[in-house]
Design brief:
3 helices, seven-stranded antiparallel beta sheet, alpha+beta, globular, Protein Transport Mog1p, Chain A, about 180 residues, about 45% helix
């Protein structure tokens, strides 16, 4: 009996490690697919992968930069679609200043300054897009009023976040 129990535990450990490796392979393929797609669509942008906070398993962070614009893309992997949805529930329930987005998946929202932060879920993955636009460094910044700078900053941040999020969603859907 003890031998069968030990054998069963060993098999369970082998299957669990294979499942974890498959999950990592799937995550790596998804991450590579998104990077390749963005590199193709966002020519002129430089890309750098950033290490997540220590202990953040199943998370990748990418910075994309072009001139005085920076887009941060983060992907978080969960064990299942229901766990990913559970992780989003507090945001969905309590974030009052959000706008639901269509065409990104089951749960997609814009929120934050100028509604320029985007989060969407596809299956067991949650994708985040955040943008910074240093409008004061634009060539014509000296000719803009403070209100015009603020308007440009919000519109540029929202435009770039939407563009990157759409490209990411397209990449996820590709075989």
């Amino acid at each position: 009996m003890r031998r069968q129990l030990c054998g069963g535990l060993i098999l369970l450990a082998v299957f669990a490690s294979k499942a974890a490796a498959q999950n990592d392979d799937e995550f790596d393929r998804l991450n590579s697919k998104i990077i390749q797609h963005l590199e193709t669509k966002m020519t002129g942008w430089t890309h750098k992968e950033v290490a997540p906070i220590q202990g953040s398993k199943g998370t990748v962070i990418h910075h994309w930069q072009n001139s005085n614009r920076v887009v941060t893309v983060s992907i978080v992997k969960y064990s299942s679609a229901s766990q990913a949805l559970d992780a989003m529930q507090p945001f969905i329930q309590y974030e009052r200043q959000k706008e639901e987005l269509k065409g990104f998946g089951a749960n997609a929202y814009a929120w934050g300054y100028g509604l320029a932060s985007i989060v969407f879920r596809r299956g067991r993955f949650i994708f985040y897009v955040e943008t910074y636009a240093a409008v004061e460094s634009d060539p014509d910044a000296q000719t803009l009023s403070a209100t015009e700078k603020g308007n440009r900053e919000r519109s540029e941040m929202k435009r770039l976040s939407m563009e990157f999020a759409k490209h990411m969603a397209t990449a996820v859907d590709q075989p």
